[in-house]
Amino acid sequence: MSEPACARATPSPAISGGSLLIAWQLKDKNVLIVGGGEVASQRIESVLTADALITILSPARGLHARTKQLIDAHAARITYYDRRFSGPAEIHKMDMVLTALDDVNISREICEMCRKAKVPVNAADIPDLCDFYFGAQIRDGPLQIMISTNGNGPRMAALMKKRIQSALSGTEGGAIEKVGVLRTQLKERAPGVGGPLGRKRMKWMSEVCNIWQVDELTQLDEHTIIKLLDEGWEKDRVPTLDQLKGQQKWHGFRPSQSIPSSTLWLPVIGSFALGAGCTALVFLARKK
Ligand SMILES: C[C@@]1(CC(=O)O)c2cc3[nH]c(cc4nc(cc5[nH]c(cc(n2)[C@H]1CCC(=O)O)[C@@](C)(CC(=O)O)[C@@H]5CCC(=O)O)C(CC(=O)O)=C4CCC(=O)O)c(CCC(=O)O)c3CC(=O)O
Ligand SMILES: NC(=O)C1=CN([C@@H]2O[C@H](COP(=O)(O)OP(=O)(O)OC[C@H]3O[C@@H](n4cnc5c(N)ncnc54)[C@H](O)[C@@H]3O)[C@@H](O)[C@H]2O)C=CC1
């Protein structure tokens, strides 16, 4: 009897032992932060960026200067209580709990309460009890890059961040913002979910992103977007920025991810020239 195909297949490299990297949407969700030290101040900033509603529990005498500043500057988003964590009632109605305490026993108790109440929790000092970890972050508008070593080496995450940062031009976030506006306007022109129109929309959007350079995408102002939709989407093609500006002819639209035919011919012409050159040399040598 023949084996089923799946049993014969070579095993793929291990796909376990990692964590799920997701962009958690926290807008207007309730987040409890217990502790007010330096680590708490970093948590507050991360959670504020995601537009959450924050409750902080921490005695005033232990507040870090940055924590104080954030509490004062974001009174509409942060409710601060000058006291210690008091028990399970604090967790009630929370969507997320973060502890950044100098007392590991309290951290552990809070984690256990959260587990019972099925509220996701991160304790800065007890990785084993965390439902999720924070990571080093690079942010440029809508572009968000998180580097995680999955608990192995947080300092290494910070160092990898510097390396990745140096490979970015700083214009990517702006370009992505413009792509967001273009996508919204395209969906307004060609509304609906799924089906052939959805597929066509996705293919066209992918081609624009493939063909246009990041710096070109940053030039997508209101006028250029309308022109790109009129001259591109409506006519089933993806013009370049130069074509839209009238600085390049309108024929020869480059399909995405294909190699331009000129590039394909280069090695052929090159090999031919090299071959011809060698033959001529051999011929001349023999003649001598
Ligand atoms: C598991 C995790 C839980 C969580 O916090 O979610 C965790 C746990 C712990 N960190 C500790 C120490 C340090 N943490 C940092 C820095 C960062 N730590 C961050 C995340 C995480 N830290 C999560 C795993 C992330 C991952 O693995 O990738 C970063 C990336 C993000 C952030 O905190 O927002 C941020 C850098 C951000 C940036 O710079 O951009 C530094 C270096 C520094 O400060 O420069 C040191 C000292 C050097 C060192 O230890 O490496 C200790 C005490 C260990 C001890 O007592 O020995 C524990 C507890 C333990 O491990 O037991
Ligand atoms: N995950 C990470 O990236 C890192 C984690 N850590 C760990 O994070 C924890 C916090 O670090 P720091 O902010 O530097 O400490 P910290 O000592 O500056 O701050 C602790 C805070 O907890 C408050 N606190 C203590 N007991 C409390 C209670 N019962 N209820 C409410 N608030 C209470 C204190 O008033 C203080 O504001 C430490 O356990 C440290 O080992 C430290 C560095 C990095």
From TrEMBL:
<dbReference type="InterPro" id="IPR036291">
    <property type="entry name" value="NAD(P)-bd_dom_sf"/>
</dbReference>
<feature type="domain" description="Siroheme biosynthesis protein Met8 C-terminal">
    <location>
        <begin position="173"/>
        <end position="239"/>
    </location>
</feature>
<protein>
    <recommendedName>
        <fullName>precorrin-2 dehydrogenase</fullName>
        <ecNumber>1.3.1.76</ecNumber>
    </recommendedName>
</protein>
<dbReference type="InterPro" id="IPR028281">
    <property type="entry name" value="Sirohaem_synthase_central"/>
</dbReference>
<dbReference type="Pfam" id="PF13241">
    <property type="entry name" value="NAD_binding_7"/>
</dbReference>
<keyword id="KW-1133">Transmembrane helix</keyword>
<feature type="domain" description="Siroheme synthase central">
    <location>
        <begin position="140"/>
        <end position="166"/>
    </location>
</feature>
<keyword id="KW-0627">Porphyrin biosynthesis</keyword>
<dbReference type="GO" id="GO:0019354">
    <property type="term" value="P:siroheme biosynthetic process"/>
</dbReference>
<dbReference type="Pfam" id="PF14824">
    <property type="entry name" value="Sirohm_synth_M"/>
</dbReference>
<dbReference type="GO" id="GO:0043115">
    <property type="term" value="F:precorrin-2 dehydrogenase activity"/>
</dbReference>
<keyword id="KW-0560">Oxidoreductase</keyword>
<dbReference type="InterPro" id="IPR028162">
    <property type="entry name" value="Met8_C"/>
</dbReference>
<dbReference type="InterPro" id="IPR006367">
    <property type="entry name" value="Sirohaem_synthase_N"/>
</dbReference>
<dbReference type="InterPro" id="IPR028161">
    <property type="entry name" value="Met8-like"/>
</dbReference>
<dbReference type="Pfam" id="PF14823">
    <property type="entry name" value="Sirohm_synth_C"/>
</dbReference>
<keyword id="KW-0812">Transmembrane</keyword>
<comment type="pathway">
    <text>Porphyrin-containing compound metabolism; siroheme biosynthesis; sirohydrochlorin from precorrin-2: step 1/1.</text>
</comment>
<keyword id="KW-0520">NAD</keyword>
<dbReference type="GO" id="GO:0004325">
    <property type="term" value="F:ferrochelatase activity"/>
</dbReference>
<feature type="transmembrane region" description="Helical">
    <location>
        <begin position="264"/>
        <end position="285"/>
    </location>
</feature>
<keyword id="KW-0472">Membrane</keyword>
